[in-house]
Structure formats: structure tokens, C-alpha cells
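Run log // design_07
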């Protein structure tokens, strides 16, 4: 049985039982990846293949990934310069525990069916409970 990280009590706005844990299904991971430039942390979701295509081009990733994703059931998410360890969802917010890692890129998917609202944003914390600086963006689901 997996033990819940105690830092959740510090970073969540509501009791833990009110959140849906999101399991990561890895698609691709790159460490020390030269196409990741700068130190800005970022995390982003993609609603359609057309949304994801420019990002795959930018990072020189295989377009076959577009066919690997079951777009009706999965929501692809990319994190840059950080490794997403755990994700929790409630209303319009996905809270992420992550570790800062320069030149790191990961693309994974989560089950789209858990999202009961049509928009959300990410809030990212490290395992010491400090909020990490990421661009604030609202993501819309179809």
C-alpha cells in the first residue's frame, strides 16, 4: 500500500479526501535533454492533437506520439524542467508535487474522465511545501 505524502496537508486548501489522485501514464521522459533551454519551470495540458503538435516539433519529439494517445480517454500533460511526482485534482485546480530538474522533459497522460469541470489550472509545489513558479494558465477541456 502506497503511503500518502504528508506534505499534502500543508499545500491543499481542503481535506485530502476531497481530492482525486491522478495517476500518471508515462509517454516519454528525457533527462539532460538539450532541446530544453532556459530554467523556467512549466506544466501544460493538451486537449487535441493539434494543440500538442507544435510542442512536439519544438522539442524534436516523434509525431507518432499523437497516435499513441487515446484522445477521448486521456489528457496529455508535459512538464518542463521538473519531474511531476504526484497530482491531485479538485474543482478547477490540479495540485502537483514536483522536483525541479534542469533540462528535464516528461510527457504523460492522465485519465480525462476524472475532470468534472471544463477548465482547470496547475499549482505546483516541491516536497518541502514551497510553491514553484510556473506560468499561470487556464486549460479548457472539450
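design_07 sequence
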Amino acid at each position: 500500500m502506497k503511503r500518502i505524502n504528508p506534505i499534502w496537508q500543508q499545500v491543499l486548501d481542503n481535506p485530502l479526501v476531497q481530492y482525486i489522485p491522478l495517476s500518471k501514464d508515462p509517454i516519454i521522459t528525457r533527462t539532460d535533454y538539450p532541446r530544453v533551454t532556459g530554467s523556467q519551470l512549466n506544466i501544460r495540458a493538451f486537449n487535441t492533437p493539434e494543440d500538442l503538435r507544435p510542442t512536439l516539433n519544438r522539442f524534436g519529439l516523434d509525431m507518432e506520439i499523437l497516435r499513441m494517445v487515446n484522445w477521448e480517454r486521456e489528457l496529455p500533460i508535459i512538464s518542463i524542467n521538473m519531474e511531476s511526482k504526484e497530482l491531485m485534482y479538485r474543482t478547477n485546480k490540479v495540485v502537483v508535487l514536483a522536483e525541479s530538474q534542469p533540462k528535464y522533459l516528461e510527457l504523460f497522460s492522465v485519465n480525462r474522465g476524472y475532470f468534472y469541470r471544463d477548465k482547470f489550472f496547475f499549482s505546483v509545489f516541491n516536497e518541502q511545501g514551497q510553491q514553484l513558479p510556473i506560468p499561470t494558465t487556464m486549460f479548457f477541456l472539450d
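Residues 83 and 99 are 5 Å apart (CA to CA).
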